[in-house]
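note to self: dont lose this again. the chain is below, predicted strucutre after it. 178 aa total, dont forget to put it in the shared folder this time
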Amino acid sequence: MTTWEWIVVVAAVAVALLLVLARIRRRRAHLKEQFGPEYMRAVSDVGTGDAERRLGGIEQTRKELHLRPLPAAARERYLDEWRQTESRFVNDPRDSARAAEGLVLRALEERGYPCEEDSERLVALVAFDHPDVADRYRHGHAMVENVGGEQGTENLRKAMLDFRSVLEDVVQGAPTAA
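---
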């Protein structure tokens, strides 16, 4: 090969490399914007490459779902059920908090989210449309699981606040992007 041929080959490889890097940057920026805090959480859990592959899969799964807004009657039913659940908190905080979490999961399922055994996958799917809700749900779930000692009732109260926020966002209708 002549010198000019080598220069052309090296330039072509450099251009191809720059295009690949630009594509990676665009994809990363897209995932950060779409998933919000969920992106950073995933990266801190498993590293950038694995997180981006996982979130890319979640994004693809989410795009295949047919989410629907809840009819007005269903929204009212969930909000009425929430008020009943909340009113039981004083007498049985643990049962009330667990019922609140169950109510959130039923609302998600009725909206069209899959009933997942893997709650982390479900939360990540929800984070696609409701990025801030994912952290609230996780926190509420952790508070329900962390009941004991002097902080037990306080943790359940915090869980109720988190689940109320999640439920209100989920039953409102259309997904909200980051």
